[in-house]
Structure formats: structure tokens, C-alpha cells
């Protein structure tokens, strides 16, 4: 992390209602952590990282951050086609993750090598000791200044993998930071400076989103071709029409505007920030 890493983020007082969570108007929301030297984002599925923090990671990468992705499941449930070749789907989704990482890093092909897929079965992710060990291993090896992941306390969340991924990330963070956990890994403990949880039930921090970061987020998401119809509502790009992609970009822009409004910004990505780790 840069020399400014330990300076307090700029606080913003809320003055209007919120589009996410139930944060009260009197709560102080911070804006923009100093750009970390290294960041690790942990997502349940291929594309979760881009949805949750794509613009933030793109802006940090443009500022010199080395961004790593850890995808916990194989994405094998990510099709509406009952006759889908699941082996081919898993392979495709792994490549989509790598392509998206390159887009978020401004075309840096080395970013593809910083994507790790843990390969747990989609829909069956568990916060078990074995899984926790592997996520803690990644944290100790990557040694991120900022760790990002799912907010496990988000209410009314249906997908079990998102809940499991959030708690798994938190529990692995505790294991990675403390010296008496997992000595068999042979890796020095590591304590990140900050944790950012996306899709936050109680947002208290926003990372601003300039236009180029928003464009990178959309481009990275569109790399997930297998998810165009099922997740993104983009069903006509294969025929040469850009209307589906344009409509998707409009929806992302609307979401970024709602998140930015949490801190009085034109656009941003909202998180719950924990910096006492």
C-alpha cells in the first residue's frame, strides 16, 4: 500500500435516503481508500468479483495496484440449458475469468496469471476447514493490502454460495492473520490493512467510479459470455446487435449512480469497510 495507506479516508455526511441497506442519514461514510499496492478479491462464482467491485479494481489497477482474483467455485450451475455440457461450461467460465481480469487491468495479459479458481462445486460451497485453509493460503501468499469479498450478512440473500463465500473469506482472514493458525502451510501470517465487503447490507464506504473505470467494469462483465442471457439479460450480441450490451451498460451505470449517491458522488461502488483487522 502507498505511504498514504494509514491516513483516514475522507468522510462524507449523508443527507438523503439510501438505495442500499438501511444506513441512517446520520452515519458517516468514507470515500476512497489510498490505492493499495496489492489487492485480493474473493468471489463465489466467475463474474461475482466484477459485479461486486469491478470498477474499483479497474481504477486501482490503472493506478498501479496488482490485482488478484480468487474464484471459489467452478461455475458449473451457471446455465439455463438442461442439456449443457458442464465440463465445457466449467472450462469456458475459467477462461472468462481470466479474460475479465485482463480487461480490468487495462489489457495487461499478466493479470490472467493472477486468477485462481479453487474449483469447489457450484451451489455446494461450504465454509469448512479445508476450504478455509486454501483461502488463508491465498491470503498469505498474495499478501494483499486490501481484501475484498461478499458481505455474508446481506439479508434476504437466496444463493447459498454467496453467504458461504462471505463467511469463508472472513474466517480465512482470521486464520491468515494469526500466527498459531495453520502452521502446516509454512507461510508467514498476513494481516491486510482493510477489508471491503461488496453488496453491503450496511454500506459505510464508497469507492468513486470515473467513466473509464465504469467502462472497464462493463467490458469485464461482458467477457462472461456464458452468462449473457441468464445473468445479464444480454441475448442478442451474437447476431451483431449491440442493443443488449448497451442496455446492460445502462443498468450498470444506474447501479453505480445509486451506490455513488450513498456518499454524494455521481458514481461509485459501495462497500462495508472494516479497517480494524
Folded structure, characterized:
By secondary structure, this protein is of the alpha/beta class. The chain has one domain: Rossmann fold, CATH 3.40.50.10320. It has helices at 48-62, 86-104, 129-142, 160-177, 211-222, 243-261; strands at residues 10-13, 28-31, 38-43, 66-73, 115-120, 146-150, 194-198, 205-208, 268-274. It has a nine-stranded mixed beta sheet with strand order 1-2-8-9-7-6-3-4-5, with helices on both faces.
Fold topology:
Blueprint: E1 10-13, E2 28-31, E3 38-43, H1 48-62, E4 66-73, H2 86-104, E5 115-120, H3 129-142, E6 146-150, H4 160-177, E7 194-198, E8 205-208, H5 211-222, H6 243-261, E9 268-274
Parallel strand pairs: 2-8, 3-4, 3-6, 4-5, 6-7
Antiparallel strand pairs: 1-2, 7-9, 8-9
- Multimeric organization: single chain
Total domains: 1
Helix content: 25-40%
Number of beta strands:
9
Supply the CATH class. Answer: Alpha Beta
Instruction: Please mark out the parts with pLDDT under 50 across 5 or more consecutive residues, or reply none.
Output: 2-8, 13-21
Question: CATH superfamily name?
Answer: LmbE-like
Task: State the secondary-structure class.
Answer: alpha/beta
**SSE ordering:** EEEHEHEHEHEEHHE
Terminal Cα span = 15 Å
Q: Indicate the overall shape.
A: globular
Instruction: Please summarize the sheet with the most strands.
Output: 9 strands, mixed
On the 0-100 scale, what is the average pLDDT? 89
Number of helices: 6
CATH topology call: Rossmann fold
Computed over alpha carbons, the radius of gyration is 18 Å
**Overall CATH architecture:** 3-Layer(aba) Sandwich
Amino acid at each position: 500500500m502507498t505511504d498514504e495507506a494509514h491516513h483516514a479516508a475522507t468522510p462524507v455526511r449523508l443527507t438523503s435516503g439510501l438505495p442500499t441497506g438501511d444506513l441512517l442519514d446520520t452515519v458517516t461514510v468514507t470515500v476512497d481508500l489510498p490505492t493499495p499496492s496489492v489487492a485480493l478479491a474473493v468471489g463465489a462464482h466467475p463474474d461475482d468479483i466484477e459485479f461486486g467491485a469491478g470498477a474499483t479494481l479497474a481504477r486501482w489497477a490503472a493506478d498501479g495496484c496488482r490485482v488478484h482474483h480468487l474464484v471459489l467455485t467452478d461455475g458449473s450451475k451457471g446455465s439455463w440449458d438442461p442439456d449443457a455440457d458442464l465440463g465445457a461450461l466449467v472450462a469456458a467460465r475459467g477462461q472468462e475469468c481470466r479474460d475479465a481480469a485482463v480487461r480490468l487491468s487495462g489489457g495487461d495479459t499478466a493479470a490472467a496469471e493472477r486468477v485462481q479458481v479453487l474449483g469447489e462445486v457450484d451451489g455446494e460451497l461450504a465454509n469448512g476447514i479445508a476450504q478455509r485453509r486454501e483461502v488463508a493460503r491465498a491470503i498469505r501468499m498474495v499478501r494483499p493490502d486490501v481484501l475484498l469479498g461478499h458481505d455474508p450478512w446481506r439479508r434476504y440473500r437466496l444463493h447459498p454460495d454467496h453467504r458461504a463465500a462471505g463467511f469463508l473469506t472472513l474466517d480465512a482472514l482470521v486464520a491468515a492473520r494469526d500466527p498459531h493458525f495453520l502452521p502446516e502451510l509454512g507461510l508467514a501470517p498476513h494481516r491486510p490493512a482493510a477489508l471491503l465487503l461488496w453488496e453491503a447490507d450496511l454500506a459505510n464506504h464508497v469507492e468513486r467510479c470515473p467513466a473509464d473505470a465504469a467502462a472497464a467494469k462493463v467490458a469485464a462483465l461482458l467477457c462472461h459470455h456464458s452468462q449473457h442471457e441468464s445473468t445479464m439479460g444480454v441475448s442478442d450480441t451474437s447476431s451483431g446487435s449491440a442493443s443488449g450490451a448497451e442496455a446492460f451498460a445502462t443498468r450498470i451505470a444506474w447501479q453505480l449512480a445509486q451506490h455513488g449517491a450513498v456518499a454524494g458522488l455521481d458514481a461509485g461502488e459501495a462497500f462495508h469497510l472494516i479497517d480494524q483487522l
